[in-house]
Design goal:
This protein has 9 helices and 15 strands.
Length: about 350
């Protein structure tokens, strides 16, 4: 599977089979993003209680387990650590669920690193390579990573593993060119790379944030990401491009004739992707700051709580289920994915 290329127009599994034809204008692709409704209908609530306990986290023993990474911060910043199991409460569609799994640390994570290698990032590829190597070196001994690159193609450069001995050669062989098929890359990572993965999952997408030619729609990419149950961290330079780089990039032929509001719509689309998966959008001014941004992601992954439950709703209808995570602690901000798709007895999930 290493080096496998996913091209425009290639056969897709059910989510991608209905994809629209190749988009010919960026504005046309993004025009309808703001009209998309949120996938869920509730905001997280505060919970109740507080003692202490932690048990070893074992994912995959119960295939019906719903696992939810939870980040707890202070409003001014900083992670809230060492909260007891009893401080957490989870509801599904308004129904209390029994918390069966609880972990504060040591949860092995599969991290898909998805790198934009379009022409618009060519001048900053050196810092991107350096930061990516450093990020991989920072992963825990039980974590695994996969590396994908995308422009007009999405290519799996390194499949799941822990060894980074090939990383330097792989990154050094890349030449940045062509357009940015961001939705295709998210769809491939969600449906192909994470297929069958039961461990805790995270996807880090490094891109300028502007899609201009994907074969799958934004809606399909969003649905695939939610189905994958991976937490998406989007490293986006849309704000910096709009404010400081647009003139230079236009001179080089990138982003020509793109209306100002397309940048706004692209940013909102990325925020929605992150929100629906329990992740975040991070904004470096340049990809030279990617080193610091990657460090933020590593710190968050290491300081997350992971909770799990088996839903009291046993109907396998493929429906979207709302999740509410409550934490009994004063002056906190809780981040968790707001829902998931139930298994479907009639058709396999992508």
């Amino acid at each position: 599977m290493i080096g496998k290329i996913y091209k425009k127009g290639m056969p897709r599994s059910p989510v991608g089979a209905a994809a629209a034809p190749v988009r010919t204008a960026l504005a046309a692709i993004l025009a309808g993003l703001l009209s998309l409704p949120l996938l869920h209908s509730r905001e997280p609530e505060a919970g109740a209680q507080d003692p202490k306990q932690q048990e070893q986290f074992k994912i995959g023993v119960e295939v019906n387990m719903v696992t939810v990474p939870v980040t707890v911060r202070r409003p001014a910043g900083g992670f809230v650590k060492d909260l007891p199991r009893e401080a957490f409460r989870v509801r599904e569609d308004g129904v209390d669920q029994e918390l069966l799994l609880f972990a504060q640390e040591g949860v092995p994570t599969r991290v898909a690193i998805v790198l934009d290698i379009s022409g618009s990032v060519r001048s900053e590829w050196g810092p991107i390579k350096f930061a990516t190597r450093k990020f991989v070196d920072s992963l825990g001994p039980q974590d695994q990573f996969a590396l994908l690159t995308f422009n007009i193609e999405t290519r799996l450069k390194m499949d799941w593993g822990r060894k980074a001995d090939r990383l330097e050669a792989v990154l050094s062989s890349i030449y940045c060119k062509d357009d940015t098929n961001l939705w295709d890359a998210i769809w491939v990572a969600s449906t192909e790379v994470f297929k069958g993965v039961r461990e805790k999952k995270a996807m880090i997408i490094m891109s300028d944030g502007l899609d201009n030619g994907s074969t799958v729609s934004y809606r399909e990419a969003l649905d695939a990401a939610v189905h994958s149950e991976a937490t998406l961290y989007v490293v986006s330079k849309t704000e910096a491009v709009r404010q400081t780089l647009i003139y230079r990039l236009q001179e080089e032929g990138y982003y020509n004739s793109i209306p100002y509001d397309v940048f706004v719509q692209a940013d909102l689309a990325l925020r929605k992707l992150a929100y629906e998966t329990g992740g975040r959008v991070l904004y470096p001014k340049t990809f030279g700051q990617l080193d610091d941004v990657y460090a933020e992601v590593i710190e968050e992954l290491r300081n997350q709580y992971t909770i799990g439950y088996v839903s009291t709703n046993t109907v396998k209808d493929g429906s979207y289920r709302n999740i509410e995570v409550g934490v009994s602690a004063p002056d906190i901000v809780v981040t968790a994915r707001p829902g998931y798709y139930a298994a479907n007895a009639l058709s396999a999930r992508p």
